[in-house]
Design goal:
The chain is an alpha/beta fold. The chain contains 25 helices and 23 strands. The chain has five domains: 70 residues; 100 residues, Beta Barrel (OB fold (Dihydrolipoamide Acetyltransferase, E2P)); 95 residues, no CATH class; 121 residues, no CATH class; 249 residues, Metallo-beta-lactamase, Chain A (4-Layer Sandwich), CATH 3.60.15. An eight-stranded mixed beta sheet has the order 14-13-12-11-10-9-22-23, with helices on one face. Strands 15-16-17-18-19-20-21 form a seven-stranded mixed beta sheet. Its main location: membrane.
Length: 763
């Protein structure tokens, strides 16, 4: 079937212009001028010529006009955004209207978008107009349409983000609750969440996400499993949800005897009502438009026009909101919709050669989406799900059932008996999806960690293209192309198999066995292991679970006897999910906010015992012993954070005498030396704060370490480790080891002598 692809270059040109305008705002005016003038010139030339080139000229005019429109849309908001960004790093008070649904972030905060109408210092708010993202402690009432007021520390965003500012709120209040249809929708959603919460887990927290896109009740662990298994698109309102609603409405109208036109109108009305119910924020509207266009092109029997309709919809969305051009969600929506329209039919025919047609269709839809979305995911995310196709095939039959029945249960709230019955009926498929996510996420090598960016996207695109060539029906007679694709897949499978063996069964075999201290290479952050007689202590977890999990796997570690969280900065606790449920006891520094407490509670729920750390605490780890040297029990010299990092001394048995300094600054180090009365020489010292310049040289001179460990990332904006710190340690005669240059670092003690291993040689 020949497809109408003429509008695809138009969409590509507008998308490129939108990216240019949002990443380089000063170019928006020139881009708008060039687009407008170019459209006029091309139109004038086309009117003077009456030949076949007129249609191509018309497309160029459309593209240039759309470029001008998207540039003007981006330019119109520049003054407000620039004014908001000037508050970077300051405490602000902001008032405005909530423009999105609220969701729980990985830090435990409730995050939402707000269009501010007032911004300034606390008590001195001035009129302003800019999109701002705020994070607050979980609370009720922050619904779409509500007017809110928050006070907190502001941080400017990176170019390309819709929000001009991020506010980490210390206080937040609802000034005016949501009203009208938004208030009704919020009440209906809240009643449904309350009804769902009475059902058992797994499935209870997931059901509101499947039915109405409210993810606040989804447990953090399940949310991570959904992401790992490639099912996260089901936990929020995505094109899949909207497509299910459109398809169900179209089918139900047909069942009632409606004609095609009436069925289309019914489906559109139902989709509009669904959007209002789940909050008509930009991401929902984007998903609804994309899904509606895709489904209607198929339902109307015009798949050949689907690509053009999709391109036109993308152009319209970008003109309305240019900042969507840089968001992964928009790119994935376009990619998935395009895959369903253009690739799924060919895949179905290709797979149909080996299996029944219904099964071929069931496999072709998620496969097409996976092949096309994979390169997009590789641009933004570090993880590629290796079980996504299988998980989606298993969850696919349950997703529409849970969505439709859950939605009906939500709407049946005025009749509690029926609502309870429907919610209980929707719970079963929701529980199936939750179990599918949990089981598949726990499979070995469920995800592949890759450095996000263009090289990774190119590699994934190459593999996806090779798979597509092998499966798609149209390449059956092109032997050379199919042989090339097969060769690519053979190489990838061989390399992948080698990686599985080396990082799986043989992972621990490739690491020396005599180590007692290990510094994991987890990027910019800390994750240090101590081992004695088979007992394991872990000091901090780094910024991300995946690198820590890989380090533990490589060292053959399944259980952590003692987890020390020195303080709660992301680069020290962001990877805690990698060990959740596998920790015996937790020793932690002072907490600063609700998110810290919630993190500790999740560890406790996984079986760990919690203890706040104070100077003087002691304990054993196998044949070694440990002692907390800092902070003092009633210290008020510093707020929770770097200077109240837990400082741990470990030694004895087969562990060399070692000191782990957390992120102490020079002032904190001086107070440590005054209060801890440190004496004698240390074999190993973990240098404070990744080797920042804020160090007390006298402390290191007094410690006189044999080995100085720097846990630091290759790409960091701080210049860590600083040259003056390296020089200070070199002056003590210490052997400097750095994770950014030498990878994973191992230290052992044999016959009283230190042994050192590094993953790679320094440059």
């Amino acid at each position: 079937m020949r497809r109408d692809l003429r509008l695809l270059p138009v969409a590509g040109g507008v998308w490129a212009a939108a990216l240019l305008c949002v990443f380089i705002p000063v170019a928006a005016g020139w881009c708008a001028l060039a687009g407008g003038v170019g459209a006029v010139i091309v139109c004038a030339v086309a009117l003077r010529r009456a030949d076949r080139a007129a249609s191509r000229a018309a497309l160029v005019v459309v593209m240039l006009a759309a470029v001008a429109a998207v540039s003007l849309a981006a330019m119109s908001s520049l003054p407000g955004r620039e004014g908001a960004a000037s508050w970077d790093g300051r405490v602000v008070e902001a008032t405005g209207e909530v423009t999105s649904s609220a969701s729980i972030g990985r830090d435990g905060r409730l995050w939402m978008e707000v269009q501010v109408t007032g911004l300034g210092s606390p008590g001195a708010v001035r009129a302003a107009s800019a999109p701002v993202r705020i994070g607050i402690d979980p609370a009720d009432g922050f619904d779409l349409g509500a007017t809110v007021s928050v006070t907190g520390e502001a941080e400017a965003t990176e170019p390309g983000e819709r929000a001009a500012l991020v506010v980490f709120a210390s206080t937040a209040s609802v000034e005016t609750p949501a009203s009208g249809v938004f208030a009704v929708a919020a009440d209906v959603r809240s009643a449904f969440i309350a009804r769902s919460s009475r059902l058992p887990e797994p499935g209870a927290g997931l059901l509101p996400g499947l039915a109405v896109g409210d993810t606040r009740a989804v447990p953090a662990e399940l949310n991570d499993d959904m992401r790992t298994s490639g099912l996260s698109h089901l936990t929020a309102v995505s094109g899949a949800n909207c497509a299910i609603v459109v398809g169900a409405a179209f089918w139900l109208a047909g069942l009632c005897g409606a004609g095609r036109v009436l069925r289309v109108i019914s489906a559109a009305l139902v989709l509009a009502g669904f959007v209002v119910l789940v909050t008509p924020e930009p991401s929902v509207i984007r998903a609804a438009v994309m899904a509606g266009v895709t489904m209607l092109s198929l339902l109307l029997g015009r798949p050949s026009a689907g690509a053009g309709m999709l391109a036109l919809s993308a152009v319209g969305i970008l003109i309305a909101d240019p900042w969507l051009a840089s968001t992964p969600g928009f790119a994935l929506s376009v990619a998935a919709s395009g895959a369903l329209i253009m690739l799924a039919p060919s895949l179905t025919r290709g797979l149909g050669r080996w299996m029944p047609q219904p099964l071929a269709l069931a496999i072709a839809v998620p496969t097409a989406a996976q092949l096309v979305c994979g390169p997009v995911i590789a641009l933004f995310a570090e993880q590629q799900s290796m079980v996504g196709l299988v998980a989606n095939l298993l969850a696919a039959p349950a997703a529409p059932i849970a969505t439709i029945i859950g939605l009906l249960a939500c709407l049946a709230a005025p009749v509690p008996a029926i609502a309870d019955l429907l919610a209980a009926s929707a719970w079963l498929p929701a529980a199936w999806i939750a179990e599918t996510a949990t089981i598949t996420a726990r499979l070995p090598f469920a995800q592949l960690v890759m450095q996000p960016g263009i090289p990774s996207a190119f590699l994934v695109a190459l593999v996806s293209a090779a798979i597509g060539v092998v499966l798609v029906d149209g390449f059956r007679r092109r032997a050379i192309i199919r042989v090339g694709a097969g060769a690519v897949l053979a190489v990838v499978l061989a390399l992948g198999g080698a990686h599985v063996v080396l990082s799986g069964p043989l992972a621990s075999a490739t690491s020396p066995n005599g180590w007692s201290i290990a510094a994991c290479d987890i990027g910019q952050g800390d994750a240090l292991l101590i081992r004695s007689e088979g007992r394991i202590a872990l000091i901090d977890t780094g910024p991300d679970p995946a690198p820590l999990a890989a380090c533990l796997r490589a060292l053959g570690i399944d259980h952590i006897d003692l987890l020390v969280l020195t303080h709660f900065d992301l680069d020290h606790v962001g990877g805690v999910e990698a060990v959740q449920g596998r920790v015996g006891s937790v020793l932690h520094g002072p907490t600063a906010e609700g998110g810290d407490e919630r993190m500790l509670q999740r560890l406790a729920d996984g079986g760990a015992t919690l203890s706040p750390a104070w100077a003087g605490q002691r304990g054993d780890l196998g044949a070694a012993s440990w002692q907390v040297l800092w902070p003092q029990r009633r210290s008020t010299a510093f707020p929770p954070g770097n200077d109240l990092s837990v400082v741990l001394e470990v030694g004895g048995g087969d562990v060399p005498r070692s000191l782990f300094l957390g992120d102490l600054s020079a002032e904190g180090q001086r107070m440590l030396e005054r209060t801890a009365h440190i004496r004698g020489r240390y074999a190993v010292v973990k240098v404070a704060h990744h080797g920042s310049a804020d160090q007390d040289a006298q402390l290191y001179a007094d410690l006189h370490p044999l080995v100085a460990l720097f846990s630091v990332g290759v790409d960091n904006d701080y210049g860590h480790p600083r040259e003056e710190t390296l020089a200070s340690l070199a002056a003590t005669g210490a052997r400097v080891l750095r994770t950014d240059r030498q990878g994973r670092l191992l230290v052992g003690l044999h016959d009283g002598e230190l042994q050192l291993w590094t993953e790679k040689q320094p440059p």
